């Protein structure tokens, strides 16, 4: 049997080599590509089931992003010592790959497709998620799966005013944005960004810049498939069995459904029905239509309903495109009524309730010590983070029931988007040394709860007294496109997201964008649509920001009385062991005595957290006493610990928890300005006196002077002292 060939192709991306290989590994997968970008190596496979999955009305695509900690030379933490559930980064990376490829499968495809990206080696300068996205596109393209790609993807940075493709770690630290652009040769399919208040025109420029490189990657993958086909390493595409409605059902139902639903939708618009009332009304109309065709088409209720829903989609879209009216009666750029409330929870550290139409989000902020930061066990270089945003979407928010389980991919994704939007305005640890956790509870959902979370969380941050750099708001934009007719919608609700062609979320301050996420359901959009959507989103964002500022114009001047007060100091790193003590004995005693939390960084930064400011101050005094060095020339108030014939020993820095303090000797000649014959004539054990540090002897022992810490004695007192000394001498 002839040895199977191996195909390796290479191109330059961002000044580094991107290499695709097939034919060496994972030969039983539908398509398998080994991607190498720098020293980042990812194996991506794409496989499709041979049969249709019955009983579903959606395309069953799964993207699994499998992190392996050996890729960065780590052993997993915890007791089991193996990878378990995916990290948040892995979930977000899987979503990042899923979103641009999902629209590129045939409508009606019901065969299960699974893409698995296994991260084998990570070079931090070369993002594994981008290598995985390109690998997924290539693996799908060389497989038999009916994928209408390929796509390419890049990260665009903005460093020193210049766009950079796939910035290195050093460049990323200076970059004003992290913009992921994915698309086909002809159009952009997905955009996701985190930015530091970057203006819209620079975002648009970055998208265009990234798309040019995407086109090159697409061409590279197409050439890769052609060569793989020639070598027998790629497969011919199959024609899948697509789920289709019986043409007879469609022909019979479409006419009556169009007439009935057009009238029903117009009533919804004229009466401005809310979500529940509209759904109840339309469901009743649909049910009557289904019933009217049940005898004609027995056992085809699902097909009848599918035709009715397709008709409903066309009607709603037609009203938008032809009459400029949305199903709730709003104009295309009109935002639903907004309500903002701050501080509605008495015992939390900060809270905000944001309501926009029937979307309502309660955001709550909690402040903690630096030790409360989240420990990260993933493939990145960051080991912890001090700002977290979590998002919860309970079933009652949509009037439904379902089991309450751990957060799913949607919750993780929405929480991360809001976190990305708010992170640029969070004060640094050096000015606000707290761990900050935000939780957004979706209380009612009718579109754009992620952007509602951004708005509610901004209110909660300001209510907590956190000195954010600027307030942030977010709005979700939609798109309806039929050939040359285009309508851009501001503040989309659930039905517009479901029936529309785009969900474009934009968050930012008055100065610029902090986060952006675009998902589309059609094969890409052009730059003109993006520009119009961003301009319309800016108007909406500024409108919402003004509504927030009317209620809470600035962060509160004081933290909640229930929030911890954190004070911090810096000690010599060599003194850390003294504060901790043998076996942690000293620091445990400080905590037990004062009731505070103490965090000590390796560089000597010390953070003390306590609800009671007096307790924090007491802990700080103890730590300062432990670490204080006696400085020559400084004045100290000390306690006389013992008296000898030649002087007095004075403790200038008290000891704690049985540990010795710092003491020095005041020689008898330095007790006073006049001559002292007996130490006890001036001081005795237990006295508190003022002394000055005057140096150290040749054995490193501290020398003190009471005389130099006192003002000069009056001249007229000198004879009295001389007479006193004379009498003492005669004795």
Please write out the topology.
Elements: E1 7-13, E2 16-22, E3 31-37, E4 40-52, E5 61-66, H1 88-101, E6 111-121, H2 128-142, E7 152-159, E8 162-165, H3 169-174, E9 177-183, E10 188-198, H4 200-230, H5 247-271, H6 275-294, H7 301-323, E11 338-342, E12 350-356, E13 359-368, E14 374-375, E15 384-385, E16 387-392, H8 409-422, E17 435-444, H9 449-463, E18 473-482, E19 485-490, H10 494-499, E20 502-508, E21 513-520, H11 527-551, E22 565-570, H12 576-580, H13 585-594, E23 597-600, E24 605-610, H14 613-627, E25 635-644, E26 647-653, E27 662-667, E28 688-696, E29 702-705, H15 717-730
Parallel strand pairs: 5-6, 16-17, 27-29
Antiparallel strand pairs: 1-2, 2-3, 3-4, 4-6, 7-8, 7-9, 9-10, 10-21, 11-12, 12-13, 13-17, 14-15, 18-19, 18-20, 20-21, 22-24, 23-24, 25-26, 25-28, 26-27, 28-29
Describe, in plain words, how this protein is organized in 3D:
Residues 720-731 have a biased composition (Basic residues). Mg(2+) binds at residues 497, 503. InterPro entries: ExoRNase_PH_dom1 (IPR001247), ExoRNase_PH_dom2 (IPR015847), ExoRNase_PH_dom2_sf (IPR036345), KH_dom (IPR004087), KH_dom_type_1 (IPR004088), KH_dom_type_1_sf (IPR036612), NA-bd_OB-fold (IPR012340), PNPase (IPR012162). It contains 15 helices and 29 strands. It has 731 residues and is α+β, with helices and mostly antiparallel strands. The protein folds into five domains: 7-231, Ribosomal Protein S5, domain 2 (2-Layer Sandwich); 247-323, Orthogonal Bundle (Arc Repressor Mutant, subunit A); 338-401 and 408-551, Ribosomal Protein S5, domain 2 (2-Layer Sandwich), CATH 3.30.230; 565-627, K Homology domain, type 1 (Ribosomal Protein S8, Chain: A, domain 1, 2-Layer Sandwich), CATH 3.30.1370.10; 634-705, Beta Barrel (OB fold (Dihydrolipoamide Acetyltransferase, E2P)). Strands 8-7-9-10-21-20-18-19 form an eight-stranded antiparallel sheet, sandwiched between helices. The protein is elongated. The termini are far apart.
């Amino acid at each position: 049997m002839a040895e199977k060939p191996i195909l390796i192709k290479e191109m330059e991306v961002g000044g580094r080599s991107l290499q695709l290989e097939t034919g060496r590994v994972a030969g039983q997968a539908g398509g398998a590509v080994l991607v190498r970008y720098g020293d980042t190596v990812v194996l991506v496979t794409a496989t499709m089931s041979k049969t249709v999955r019955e009983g579903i009305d959606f395309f069953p695509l799964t993207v699994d992003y499998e992190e392996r900690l050996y890729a960065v030379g780590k052993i997993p933490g915890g007791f089991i010592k193996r990878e378990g559930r995916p990290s948040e980064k892995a979930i977000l990376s899987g979503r990042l790959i899923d979103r641009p490829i999902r629209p590129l499968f045939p409508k009606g495809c019901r065969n299960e497709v699974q893409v698995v990206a296994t991260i084998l080696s990570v070079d931090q300068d070369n993002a594994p998620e981008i290598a995985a996205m390109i690998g997924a596109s290539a693996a799908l393209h060389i497989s038999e799966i009916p994928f209408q790609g390929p796509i390419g993807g890049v990260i665009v940075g903005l460093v020193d005013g210049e766009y950079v493709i796939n910035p290195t770690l050093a460049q990323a630290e200076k970059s004003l944005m992290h913009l992921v652009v994915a698309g086909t040769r002809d159009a952009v399919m997905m955009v996701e960004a985190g930015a530091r208040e970057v203006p819209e025109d620079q975002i648009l420029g970055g998208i265009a810049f990234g798309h040019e490189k995407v086109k090159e990657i697409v061409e590279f993958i197409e050439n890769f498939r052609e060569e793989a086909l020639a070598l027998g390493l790629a497969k011919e595409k199959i024609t899948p069995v697509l789920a289709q409605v019986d043409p007879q059902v469609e022909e019979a139902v479409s006419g009556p459904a169009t007439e009935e639903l057009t009238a029903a939708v117009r009533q919804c618009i004229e009466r401005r029905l809310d979500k529940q009332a509209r759904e109840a009304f339309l469901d009743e109309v649909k049910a009557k239509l289904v019933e009217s065709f049940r005898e004609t088409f027995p056992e085809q209720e699902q097909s009848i309903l599918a035709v009715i829903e397709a008709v409903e989609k066309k009607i709603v879209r037609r009203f938008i495109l032809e009459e400029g009216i949305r199903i709730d009666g709003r104009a295309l750029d009109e935002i639903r009524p907004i309500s903002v409330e701050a501080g509605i929870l008495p015992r939390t550290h900060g809270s905000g309730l944001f309501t926009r139409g029937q979307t309502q989000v309660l955001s709550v902020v909690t402040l903690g010590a630096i030790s409360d930061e989240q420990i990260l066990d993933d493939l990145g270089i960051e080991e912890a983070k001090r700002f977290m945003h979590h998002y919860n979407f309970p079933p009652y928010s949509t009037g439904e029931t379902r089991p309450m389980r751990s957060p799913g991919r949607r919750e993780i994704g929405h929480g991360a988007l809001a976190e990305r939007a708010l992170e640029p305005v969070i004060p640094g640890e050096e000015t606000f040394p707290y761990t900050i956790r935000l939780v957004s509870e979706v209380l009612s959902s009718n579109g754009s709860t992620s952007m509602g979370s951004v708005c509610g969380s901004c209110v909660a941050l300001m209510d907590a007294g956190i000195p954010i750099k600027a307030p942030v708001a977010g709005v979700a934009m939609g798109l309806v496109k039929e050939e040359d007719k285009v309508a851009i919608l501001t503040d989309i609700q659930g039905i517009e997201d479901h029936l529309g062609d785009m969900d474009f979320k934009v968050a930012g301050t008055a100065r610029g964008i902090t986060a952006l996420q675009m998902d589309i359901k059609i094969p890409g959009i052009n730059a003109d649509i993006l520009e119009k959507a961003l301009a319309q989103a800016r108007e909406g964002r500024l409108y919402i920001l003004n509504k927030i500022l009317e209620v809470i114009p600035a962060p509160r001047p004081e933290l909640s009385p229930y929030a911890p007060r954190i004070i911090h100091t810096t000690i010599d790193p060599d003194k850390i062991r003294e504060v901790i003590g043998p076996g942690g004995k000293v620091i445990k005693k400080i905590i037990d005595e004062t009731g505070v939390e103490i965090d000590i960084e390796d560089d000597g930064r010390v953070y003390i957290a306590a609800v009671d400011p007096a307790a924090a101050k007491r802990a700080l005094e103890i730590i300062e006493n432990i670490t204080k060095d006696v400085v020559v020339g400084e004045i100290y108030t000390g306690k006389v610990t013992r008296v000898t014939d030649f002087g007095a020993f004075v403790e200038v820095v008290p000891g704690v928890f049985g540990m010795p303090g710092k003491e020095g000797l005041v020689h008898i000649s330095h007790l006073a300005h006049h001559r002292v014959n007996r130490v006890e004539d001036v001081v005795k054990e237990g006295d508190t006196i003022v002394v000055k540090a005057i140096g150290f002897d040749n054995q490193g022992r501290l020398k003190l002077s009471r005389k130099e810490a006192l003002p000069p004695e009056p001249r007229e007192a000198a004879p009295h002292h001389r007479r006193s000394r004379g009498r003492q001498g005669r004795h």
